[in-house]
Amino acid sequence: MDTTRFIYLDHNATTPLDPMVVQSMKPYLQDEFGNPSSSYALGIRAKEGVEQARLEVAGLLGCDAHEIIFTSGGSESNNMALKGLLDLRTPDQFHVITSAVEHPAILNPLLFLMELGVKVSILPVDRYGMVDPDDVKKAIRSETILISIMLANNETGTLQPIQEIAYIAKEHDILFHTDAAQAVGKMEVDIRDLRVDLLSVAGHKLYGPKGVGALFIRNGLHLTPVIHGAGQEGGRRAGTENVMLAVGLGTACRMAKARLQADMLKMKALRDHLQDLLFQHIPGLMLNGHPQERLPNTLHISVPGVKGSKILEGLPTLFASTGAACHDRQVKLSHVLSAMGVSPHMGMGALRLTTGRINTMDEIEEAAEMIIKQVKRFFV
Fold first, then answer.
1. What is the DSSP code (8-state) at residue 167?
2. What is the pTM of this model?
3. Nearest Cα to 297, choosing from 263, 265, 268, 262?
4. pLDDT tens, residue by residue, 293-326
5. Does the N-terminal or the C-terminal CB of the chain have fewer CB atoms within 10 Å?
């Protein structure tokens, strides 16, 4: 079997670099090696590259450039948002609200903070993986300092009612953070509409490079740095900026903004066609997540009686996932599906199939045929 030719349906795990992103980064691999803090021409050009990238990230999100700082990725952005607001000298004076379906880059930092004495409320979700805004309101205490609810779930694609939660947060004068790593580049993400105070971005989820992300920090909001050192990024994140990666993220954001509507329509058409084909030919198939309020590229299904990992093992040229890539190799029920009340019998048969720019309708039909044939082998 020729495994050099493959069908990639795991765009929620990572995305290939856009060719324009590659071209934009090349000068900073060799000739443009200056330190952005240096005052001579080489450093000034590096600084200009970083600041142009900052403008491009801000342009996609609908905020001011000075409200964007560059990080090493979504995980660091989340850690900065969660830890930067707290005074860890008095951890028991702070309370944070989150949900049971957050990415480990939210849940694990919060578990760490809980060990230090910070109080955390982890809200349940309904069968679609959605948080009830009323539960958010009920969880608020006098010491609540932050609400952190993801915009789009990385496994099911379910979208959370962010605007409703933001209204509640503003009503109670509580800061609101959203992990938007899976959403940015796949759907409209406008900070002016969302009304959040902090928002996390991961470069490799929108055809940018790995190892770079961004954090939106609303103007006037002070965060204690997670990384202390010199005064880069306005004193909010120490360390010499990785100019090449920042430029790559900026270009990815510029490209995403220019083609977002076309990409959304294409990804949804491919996703919906794949869903139709699979549900037509696989009895008992179950859709995980909200049928409408989800990312346009995400199809998360469960095949009854068959482990998703076993299905994919027999399809070496189909690159997909059984859930979240961060813990995909562990054969256990996803914490997201568990929180949604999905039974182990159905949850272990999960497949996450996520479309992207590079996919074609022919590939979708081929992938559907491969999955259908593989599933039928288990019931012969």
1. H
2. 0.96
3. 268
4. 999 999 999 999 899 999 999 999 999 999 655 5
5. C
pLDDT value for 17: 98
Measured CA to CA, the distance from residue 261 to residue 256 in angstroms comes to 9
Tell whether the model's pLDDT for residue 12 goes beyond 80. Answer: yes
Give the whole-angstrom CA distance, residue 349 versus residue 343.
Answer: 10
Query: Per the residue annotation, which of 22, 44, 262, 326 is the catalytic one?
Result: 326
Look up 253 and say whether it is catalytic: no
Burial of 192 (0-12, 13-18, 19+ CB in 10 A): exposed
User: β-pairing, 95-99 with 144-148?
Assistant: parallel
Tell me the H-state helices in the chain: 19-25, 41-61, 74-83, 104-116, 133-139, 162-171, 191-194, 243-281, 308-313, 335-339, 344-347, 361-377
Domains of the chain: 7-16+260-377 (3.90.1150.10), 19-256 (3.40.640.10)
Q: With beta carbons less than 8 A apart as the criterion, state whether 224 and 83 touch.
A: yes
Q: What is the pLDDT of residues 160-204, one digit of tens each?
A: 999 999 999 999 999 999 999 999 999 999 999 999 999 999 999
Total residue count of the chain as it appears in this document: 380
Cα separations in angstroms, 178 against 61, 98, 99, 132, 138: 13, 10, 11, 16, 19
Strand partners, 158: 294
Indicate the average pLDDT of the chain.
Answer: 95
